[in-house]
Amino acid sequence: MVIANILGQFLQGILHTGWVEFVAVIAGIASVWFSRKAHILVYPIGLINTLLYIYLSYKGSLYGEASVNIYYSVMSIYGWIQWSKKDQQTHFLKLYIQYSNRKDWVMQVLFFICCYALIFSALTWLKQSFAPAAIPWADGFASASAFTAMWLMTRKKVESWIWWTATNIASIPLYYMKGYVFTSVQFMVLLVLSIAGLISWSKKALHETH
Q1: DSSP string, the chain
Q2: Domain assignment present for 93
Q3: Are the C-beta atoms of residues 53 and 24 closer than 8 Å to each other?
Q4: pTM to 2 decimals?
């Protein structure tokens, strides 16, 4: 009976999905598909997704996620530039897929911790002040892991997919509880793609370093 109710709510949520959310979801899935292939189109298509989700996140009191999408938009432009750079002598792309070394790991973990602390504190203040619907711990985790993943992706680090996987796992229930059912479906798809991306980039990293 419980499962039937959940499925019923899920179907109702899909039927009531607005066109903004629908377009954002399609663009999001498409951008991750291109990122798995390390294709430059990940960034222009990703910008469509992030700009639309700035609006949706603000509307749903997901202020941490709104900040993530503002950050995504800025980093998409930065990543677009970085991925496009070529060596003047060889004319090959300067960036190639690679694993993080020990120093990179320390930096990304510290980056995540700092982002989480800042976002959690800000969301806790917002919840107490004028946004009672905010969920600081969950929104903070999803946001901080996404900040870390996007930063690593602009540097073509394999580990970006580990952080994307964490983001997707946290975001599925977060958006569902806020009524963005179709978006929670997006994160289910993105979870599968993030695992596929990790496998794909791991193979490419081994190939490009040998």
Answers
A1: -HHHHHHHHHHHHHHT--HHHHHHHHHHHHHHHHHHTT-TTHHHHHHHHHHHHHHHHHHTT-HHHHHHHHHHHHHHHHHHHHHH-B-TTT-SBS---B---HHHHHHHHHHHHHHHHHHHHHHHHHHHHT-TT--HHHHHHHHHHHHHHHHHHHTTBTTHHHHHHHHHHHHHHHHHHTT-HHHHHHHHHHHHHHHHHHHHHHHHHHHHT-
A2: no
A3: yes
A4: 0.81
158 located within any domain: yes
Q: Is residue 17 assigned to a domain?
A: yes
Q: Is residue 151 domain-resident? A: yes
CA-based R_g, the chain, Å: 18
Nearest CA among 129, 131, 16 for reference residue 65: 131
Region 103-131: mean pLDDT is: 88
**119, 144 in Cβ contact below 8 A?**
yes
Question: For 57-92, what is each residue's pLDDT tens digit?
Answer: 888 777 767 877 898 899 999 999 999 988 777 767
Closest by alpha carbon to 194, among 154, 166, 155?
A: 166
Owning domain of residue 118: 2-86+99-208
Q: How many domains does one find in the chain?
A: 1
